[in-house]
Amino acid sequence: MKLNLLHLFCFIFMLNLCACSEVECPLDSVVVMTCGLYDADTKEKLNLEQTLTVQPMGKDTVFLNAANDMSDFVLPLKYAETTDTMLFHFSDRWGQTATDTLVVCHDNIQHFESVECPTVVFHQLISVDWANENGAAASFVTIDSVAIVRKLVDYADVENIQIYLRSAR
Amino acid sequence: MPMLKTYKYICVALVSVCSVMPAVAEHYAMSDTLSSSTTTPKRYTSREEARKALEKDRHSTFFTGFSVGVDLVGPIMDAASSRGSVEGMCRAHLLETYFPVLEIGVGTCNHTDENTNLNFSTKSPYFRVGCDVNFSKNKTTGNRILGGVRYGFTSFEYDISAPPLVDPNWGTSLPFEMHNIKGKKHWAELLFGIESRVCSFLQIGWAVRYKFTLANQSADHAHPWYVPGYGRNKNGIFGANFNLIFEL
After folding, report:
1. C-alpha–C-alpha distance, residues B196 and B204, integer Å
2. With b meaning 16 or more CB within 10 Å and e meaning fewer, what string describes A18-41?
3. Is the CB of residue B176 less than 8 Å from the CB of residue B166?
């Protein structure tokens, strides 16, 4: 009798053991492209003195609104398309403005972590192109070049592209 | 013509002799067996002496039989939850101490999370090989304390589906479906269990297992949530079996 009760107890314990689970989702599940600002001459990290607003082309949405005194920022990429065109509006306290265009080409990768975690889309950067308004010499600040340093855009808060800015002297 | 008839009679005679030979050989073999089996049974002075003699005899016998069994936890889990398995095992009895074992099963999972509505499904076979050691002092009663190791392997396919992903900035909807994603897993298990004899040929036993991954292979952006035969895809998990074992 005692042995049968022991076996029954162990059987129920084992069913519970097999039923245990825990959730392990990443705390930060937002997928954004991290952009660093650098000086085109010194190649050092730049603390932006001017004001920067970033908008997608063809939409009123604002990704970055009048930000300054910063050296990096994040931008979202499209889930369903492979090209993102963004307008970089620079302005300073003297009212000067300049708008540059950044075109990011990427692949989209659906990512599954666990059934308890929401699905996300990662991106694989292919190329980044830029265009200056009215030519580089006419602007008080302009994008000189852009380099991809990490192609995979995922949860990690790691720099993906380096934007080198040139200020007119 | 007479030569032809002679050859014909010789062939018939040869065929007749060949067909009778096996029966004659069998008759003489049976005679030998009967003559050698008529031995006088040995008498013991007490029951204790007979038990010790039997134990000595069984210990000296290398192969004492084999058994087959089925796991009861897997089908119950399958009926009561979103995942489970159907598993059978076969093992040999060596010196009533070592039990090499082969376990084969089919693991299934069809799980949908109630919060995310994400569905993961798989149904694939797996196998494990290993050996158990009986640590109990009295090895002839059929009650055993077992410790063992296993090596497990499965090659499986799985499907993942989710509600469409909506881009929060652009409002576009992206369907999320992945089918027939292939995966492989090698793992090892450390096992502790107890078995007890119910009657002459039937035993019940349970075992707790600690499982850890040796190697695995799966899609980079869709790791399997459940692996048939292993369980939830984490390194270092516990599992259990409750076996119905038939000794043959």
Report:
1. 6
2. beeeeeeeeeeeebbbbbbbbebe
3. no
What is the CA angle A90-A142-A132, rounded to 5? 100
Could you tell me if B117 lies within 8 Å of chain A, comparing CB atoms? no
Buried b (16+ CB within 10 A) or exposed e, B96-126: beebebebebbbbbeeebeebebbbbbebbb
* Residue B94 contacts A where some CB pair is shorter than 8 Å: no
Phi, psi of A126 (to 5 degrees): -105, -50
Query: What's phi and psi for B55, nearest 5 deg?
Result: -65, -40
CA distance A128 to chain B (A): 20
B161 φ/ψ angles, rounded to the nearest 5 degrees: -140, 150
Angle at A162 between CA A158 and CA A167, to 5 degrees: 140
The ipTM value here is: 0.76
Pairwise CB contact (< 8 Å): A56 & B169 = yes
Rounded (5°) CA angle A78-A81-A85: 65
Nearest CA in chain A to B143: A3
Tell me A112's DSSP state.
B
What does the pLDDT look like over B123-181, one tens digit per residue? 999 999 999 999 998 887 788 999 999 999 999 999 999 999 999 889 999 999 999 99
Full-prediction pTM beyond 0.95? no
Contact B96, B65 (CB under 8 A): no
B206 with A7: Cβ contact below 8 A = yes
Contact B170 A109 (CB under 8 A): no
Which contiguous run of DSSP H or E holds residue B17? helix B2-37
Closest CA to A78 of B219, B178, B165: B165
